[in-house]
Specification:
This protein is an alpha/beta fold. The chain has 17 helices and 8 strands. Helix 5 packs parallel to helix 6 and helix 11 crosses helix 17.
């Protein structure tokens, strides 16, 4: 486990172990490791004392969600009464979170992954303020909780007026050292590589991925599969091809966030504009969109609400640079050709990776590469 990851886990555990315990709210975008964190915590705390709940997967109706949570619980049941309404089912859920106990009667820990998905319950009668009611109940409970969500802006708004028991924790981007450690399992003989080669590999992959764990793992696994002669840029090119794993991953994240926002078509248009050029001001975007600044401002606020764009000094850009690259490649009437993908990934890499002059000799992190397999890598050549 990388040093930064260890420190992050300790911070979350420290909040749980404080007296009284605090409630960490872990925020991070798609692919930053929220779910993996909760699974590590469950293993660390022990299955008899901690329950992991993937809210996004099972938040259907309040009644069925209650049934799913209780049915997978490691804690002794607290009655089998069936709720008479959606409101009663939600109240029973809150009571369960408060009354459940670990063996020996000790407080237990609930790990609620993507907790903001409970907002879908607000379409049921009597449930207008589900998230507010949930946070108030958790804050009063003697049990311990860790919450996560990919929706950073929404979480900050929700937590603005909550009690100090809630502690916002942002998952940091992976550093070069973290990336280097994460890549190690993908390659045989990785530890025997010259230190400069390993460090440069980490810098290149960190630059290409913006430190997002899902992209780092995908590039490492793909390089290992491609074998000798592979490099991170070639791996990213393969991953973003029409059949590539990151094409499917980015499509999922793109559509998921857009469907959680308002103005679906207009938002896609703004993302298309920003994929061509960024950062842009509100006025520049409205001109390209052929809409008024007022309506464009609304669209941009909805994109910020689901963390697809970020505003810095009144200039807007994609929050995730790899997703921007995906939009440039795949949001067109026809799929990109191999040459299209290679060209766009090369241009992306030129702007984000260290200078090619600093590249190591080995193209692939296999220490037994022959002299003929050595080259200066980092940027691929396109005819």
């Amino acid at each position: 486990m990388a040093g930064q990851q260890i420190g992050f886990d300790r911070r979350v555990l420290g909040a749980l172990e404080a007296a009284p315990s605090r409630i960490p709210v872990v925020l991070g975008g798609c692919g930053t490791g929220r779910t993996v964190l909760l699974q590590r915590l469950r293993d660390r705390l022990g299955h008899p004392t901690a329950q992991y709940i993937d809210v996004e997967r099972c938040a259907t109706t309040p009644e069925r969600f209650l049934q799913a949570v209780a049915g997978s619980s490691p804690f002794p049941p607290n009655g089998e009464r069936q709720p008479a309404s959606a409101r009663e089912a939600f109240d029973m859920l809150l009571a369960y979170f408060d009354a459940a106990r670990a063996p020996g009667g000790e407080p237990c820990t609930f790990l609620l992954d993507e907790v903001l998905e409970l907002r879908t319950f607000e379409s049921f009668p009597g449930l207008r303020h589900v998230l507010r009611d949930l946070l108030e109940a958790l804050a009063r409970s003697a049990n311990r909780f860790v919450l996560t969500t990919r929706y950073v802006a929404r979480a900050h708004r929700l937590l603005r007026d909550t009690t100090p028991r809630f502690e916002v924790v942002h998952i940091p981007a992976l550093t070069q050292g973290d990336v280097t450690d994460l890549l190690a399992p993908a390659f045989n003989g990785y530890e025997q590589m010259p230190t400069d080669d390993r460090d440069y590999l980490g810098r290149v992959v960190q630059g290409l991925t913006d430190g997002r764990a899902v992209y780092v793992r995908a590039i490492g696994d793909t390089m290992a599969q491609m074998g000798r002669g592979s490099d991170p840029v070639s791996a990213l090119t393969a991953l973003l091809s029409p059949d590539g794993a990151l094409n499917h991953w980015c499509r999922f994240c793109y559509e998921l966030r857009l469907h959680r926002a308002r103005g679906y078509g207009a938002l896609k248009a703004i993302l298309d504009v920003l994929s061509e050029e960024e950062p842009l001001t509100l006025t520049e975007i409205s001109h390209r969109l052929h809409r008024t600044p007022g309506s464009t401002k609304d669209y941009l606020s909805w994109l910020e609400d689901v963390d697809l764009v970020t505003s810095r000094q009144k200039r807007y850009s994609f929050t995730d640079p790899v997703l921007r690259l995906w939009v440039r490649l795949h949001c067109h009437p026809v799929p990109p050709t191999e040459a299209d993908v290679a060209r766009e990934v090369q241009q992306y890499a030129l702007a984000r990776v260290p200078s090619p002059e600093a590249a190591p000799a080995l193209a692939y992190a296999g220490v037994d590469a022959t002299a003929d397999e050595r080259k200066s890598w980092g940027i691929i050549e396109i005819d």
